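Data deposition worksheet. Section B asks for the primary sequence of the deposited chain exactly as it was used as input, without tags or linkers unless they were present during the calculation. Section C holds the resulting structure in token form. Section D is free text for depositor observations; keep each observation to a single sentence. Incomplete worksheets are returned to the depositor.
Section A, Depositor: J.P.
Section B:
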Amino acid sequence: MANAARGIGIAAGAAAAGCAMAYGATKLLSTPPPERCCPTERARRDTFDGLAKKWDSTVRFDEFMAGINRSRRRLVQRADGDVLEVAVGSGRNFSYYNSAKVSSVTGIDFSRAMLEVADGRRSELSPIQLRLKLTSVQKMDFEDASFDTVVDTFGICSFEAPVEALREMRRVVKEDGQILLLEHGASNWEIVQGLLNRSTQRHVEKFGCYPNRDIARLVKEAGLHIAVDERKHFGTTYSLVCKRNPP
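Section C:
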């Protein structure tokens, strides 16, 4: 009996210690690291310029394993009419546009090197007309309500002023148009968010993007209405269909 009681006591003590360690680890990971200056937009643009030629090979395997290609296809095939794709990058979405629904695609990016890679993929978009433009999404010179669809995949993480960029997307989309967003950002799991917070500095310096932004909050702050909200990967991958205004 004494041995049984001792065993129960040891088990209870071990369980308590385990809970304490788990709690401590959670608090440690969920506490943001000391703030440091992150790279400027110019520095991040230089990062993308340097990665452009090897970008596809850099992300191809990870995107395949995470099912991102399927997510791109599902979202981009919603596009119709005249499309603006912001942060077009190397043109990884070109093969997913439906030529029976899409009349034209205008792709913009702040990286000239990325646009040069995208220009080499025109055949993947044929027969859809393609126009590429070097510009920042925060300062677009398109007229109000110019596009039926705005597409952005994994761009909000790299914008210097994400809310301003989203407001610009809202400005240029037609009243009955749609904004299609596939993004990675904040998790709804505390421990996962803690890991994202602690790796942000290194991630920004290496890939030029912030992995811990609350995408849904930014979208709402920009005045957009989220009509479809789907999440994957502990809530860190967002697939959103947005409208200028609520129905």
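Section D:
Confidence is low (pLDDT under 50) at residues 1-30.
The beta strands are 81-86, 102-109, 129-134, 147-153, 173-184, 225-232, 237-243.
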